[in-house]
Amino acid sequence: MADKEKKIKKKKAKEDAPAEEAPAPAPAAGGERQSSRGSRKAKRSGSNVFSMFTQKQVAEFKEAFQLMDHDKDGIIGKNDLRATFDSLGRLAVDKELDEMLGEASGPINFTQLLTLFANRMSGGSDDDDVVINAFKTFDNDGKIDSERLRHALMTWGDKFSADEVDEAYDQMEIDDKGFIDTNKLITMLTASAEEEEGGEAA
């Protein structure tokens, strides 16, 4: 009897030992090899970043990340960014792409992308700047193709319904060729936000 108990205890000890060691290789599972200090830092910031977003938001960011990761290697690089801009019908110069990649502290994997979004949301960027930059990505010689914008609004992020886009378009000036004046749209959106703030203060 005592021998059986010893064997069972030894088995349990062997089973428990790998379980204790298992967390150590976990940082390498992310596909990136860094120093242990960097891995712990990434892991620590990752858990905080994921808690800043709802599951739905994380799923939407994941979908966007997968769309941007054209070569499907799990990292958004310069060629991925270029291909993303190309798919939006906008040419991006090397300097612009380098500046975007330079905003991240390392290779842009999914966790790093979430970290960039979290930094922006926590005051790293002005709301008006976000609006201006968002619409400037659709800008072509001062005009935005309303059909291209409609497609984007109904396809990515918090998807708009056709009725919601129509309702928004009722507030915009669209010329007979289907183009929206970029500056007028930006002015309308940023000015209305300021008026709302002024109305609340009064």
Please describe what this structure looks like.
This is EF-hand domain-containing protein. Pfam families: EF-hand_6. One of its GO terms (biological process) is post-embryonic development. With about 200 residues, this protein is mainly alpha-helical. The chain has helices at about 1-20, 35-50, 55-70, 80-85, 95-100, 110-125, 125-135, 145-155, 160-170, 180-200; strands spanning about 140, 145, 180. The protein has a 3-stranded antiparallel sheet. The longest helix has 20 residues, at about 1-20. The radius of gyration is 24 Å and the shape is globular.
List its traits.
single chain, 202 residues, mainly alpha, three-stranded antiparallel sheet, globular
**Distance linking N and C termini:** 84 Å
Beta strand count = 3
Helix tally equals 10
Order of helices and strands: HHHHHHHEEHHEH
Provide the helix percentage: 55-70%
Low-confidence region ranges: 9-47
Radius of gyration: 24 Å
Strand content: under 5%
Mean pLDDT score, rounded? 74
Reading side by side through the largest sheet, how are the strands ordered? Answer: 1-2-3
Largest sheet: 3 strands, antiparallel
Structural category is mainly alpha
Global geometry: globular
Brief overview:
By secondary structure, the chain is mostly helical. 66% of the residues lie in helices and 4% in strands. The chain is globular, with a radius of gyration of 24 Å.
Which helices and strands appear, and what pairs or packs with what?
Blueprint: H1 2-21, H2 36-51, H3 55-68, H4 78-87, H5 94-102, H6 110-124, H7 127-136, E1 139-140, E2 143-145, H8 146-155, H9 162-170, E3 179-181, H10 182-201
Antiparallel strand pairs: 1-2, 2-3
Helix pairs in contact: 2-6, 7-10
